[in-house]
């Protein structure tokens, strides 16, 4: 589950926020299997989509994270969840997207790391209301 500014998000919803106001993010990983899972790393990467196949991830002058954009998850037991909180601060107006990825963080494996990518979250940063 992904919440942006307290609102549940999916790929069909555009969340609107104001430039200069921190936007709270919440990502909840629920283990619906019969076995413990982990360790994982959760990474959130903002980008702009130029609608021509190009994604711009070089946004350090437009967006900043309040805190970290990577969280480490040790183990999630069966039927339990793990919730992670962060915030984004938009410095300019525009349409932005947030890529959220989980990947295995187990260095003892000989196989390549596996990734789970959630649908991108669409956030529209607008001018503050005077």
Explain what this protein looks like in three dimensions.
This protein has 130 residues and is mainly β. The chain contains no helices and 11 strands. It has one domain (2-126): Sandwich (Immunoglobulin-like). The strands form 2 sheets. Strands 3, 5, 6, 8, 10 and 11 form a 6-stranded mixed beta sheet that branches. It has a 5-stranded antiparallel beta sheet with strand order 2-1-4-9-7, with no helix packed on it. InterPro entries: Ig_TRAPPC9_Trs120_4th, Trs120_TRAPPC9.
Q: Would you spell out the secondary-structure blueprint of this structure?
A:
Layout: E1 2-4, E2 7-8, E3 14-18, E4 22-30, E5 40-49, E6 55-56, E7 63-66, E8 70-73, E9 81-90, E10 94-104, E11 115-126
Parallel strand pairs: 3-11
Antiparallel strand pairs: 1-2, 1-4, 4-9, 5-6, 5-8, 5-10, 7-9, 10-11
Provide keyphrases for this structure.
Immunoglobulin-like, Ig_TRAPPC9_Trs120_4th, 11 strands, mainly beta, 6-stranded mixed sheet, 5-stranded antiparallel sheet, 130 residues
End-to-end distance: 33 Å
Please give the domain count: 1
Low-confidence stretches: none
CATH topology: Immunoglobulin-like
Helix and strand element order: EEEEEEEEEEE
Question: What structural class is derived from the secondary structure elements?
Answer: mainly beta
Largest sheet: 6 strands, mixed
Indicate the proportion of strand residues: over 45%
In the CATH scheme, the class would be Mainly Beta
Rounded average pLDDT = 83
The DSSP helix count reads 0
How much helical structure, as a percent, in the residues?
Answer: under 10%
Q: Under the CATH scheme, which architecture would be assigned?
A: Sandwich
Gyration radius from CA atoms, angstroms: 16 Å
- The total of beta strands comes to 11
Give the overall form.
Answer: elongated
- CATH evolutionary superfamily: Immunoglobulins
Domain Trs120/TRAPPC9 fourth Ig-like: 16-125
Protein name: TPPC9 protein
């Amino acid at each position: 589950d992904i919440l942006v500014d307290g609102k549940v998000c999916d790929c069909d919803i555009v969340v609107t926020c104001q430039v200069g106001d921190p936007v709270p993010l919440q990502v909840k990983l629920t283990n619906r299997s019969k076995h413990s899972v982990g360790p994982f790393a959760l990474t959130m990467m903002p980008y702009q989509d130029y609608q021509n196949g190009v994604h711009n991830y070089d946004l350090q002058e437009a967006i900043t994270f309040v805190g970290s954009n990577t969280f480490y998850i040790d183990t999630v037991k069966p039927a339990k969840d793990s919730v992670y909180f962060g915030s984004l601060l938009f410095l300019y107006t525009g349409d932005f997207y947030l890529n959220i990825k989980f990947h295995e963080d187990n260095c003892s494996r000989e196989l390549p790391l596996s990734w789970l990518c959630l649908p991108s979250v669409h956030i529209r940063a607008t001018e503050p209301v005077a």
